[in-house]
Amino acid sequence: MGIKVFARVRPVKNACYDEMDVKEGENGKTDLRLKGFDFTIDGYFDKDATQEDIYISAGSDQVDSLLDGYSSCIMAYGQTGSGKTHTLYGPDEVLTGR
Q1: What is the pLDDT of residue 75?
Q2: Of 13, 37, 62, 66, whose CB neighbour count within 10 A is largest?
Q3: How far is CA 88 from CA 1, 20, 33, 35, in A?
Q4: Is 30 helix (H, G, I), strand (E, B) or coil?
Q5: What does the alpha-carbon distance between residue 23 and residue 26 come to, in Å, rounded to a whole number?
Q6: Please, what is the Cα angle at 71 between 95 and 74, to 5 degrees?
Q7: What is the Rg, in whole angstroms, of the alpha carbon atoms belonging to the chain?
Q8: DSSP SS3 for 17
Q9: pTM above the 0.90 mark?
């Protein structure tokens, strides 16, 4: 299966979106330009993406492989406070049980 890279950009200031350009690249990849840097990634999620959207695109293949007996890993990487826990678990109510 290999390594896949997805990005979820959830800036605190919406002004960051003015500096971002996302478009379909070649071979089903996504080209992302943010603050003068270019990235080619497997998928992109904006601030309106749901947990289900992210799971279907980025997580379900990993879970299927795990259930088939293969090693699997999903890693969230980013700056402190950038939304990693929210991306993996969803709203605070999910973690607190309220």
Answers
A1: 83
A2: 62
A3: 21, 23, 24, 25
A4: strand
A5: 10
A6: 35
A7: 15
A8: helix
A9: no
Full DSSP string of 60-98: HHHHHHHHTT----------TTSSHHHHHH-SHHHHH--
Bridge partners for 92 per DSSP: none
Q: Name residue 33's amino acid.
A: R
Pull the structure tokens for residue 97. 């049980």
For the segment 48-91, what is each residue's pLDDT rounded down to a tens digit?
A: 888 888 889 888 988 999 999 999 888 878 777 777 777 777 66
Please write the tens of the pLDDT for every residue from 16-54. 555 678 888 888 898 888 778 888 989 888 778 888 888
Q: d(Cα 35, Cα 19) in Å, to the nearest integer?
A: 6
Residue whose tokens read 């478009």 = 23
On average, the pLDDT of the chain sits at: 79
Distance in Å from the first CA to the final CA of the chain = 37
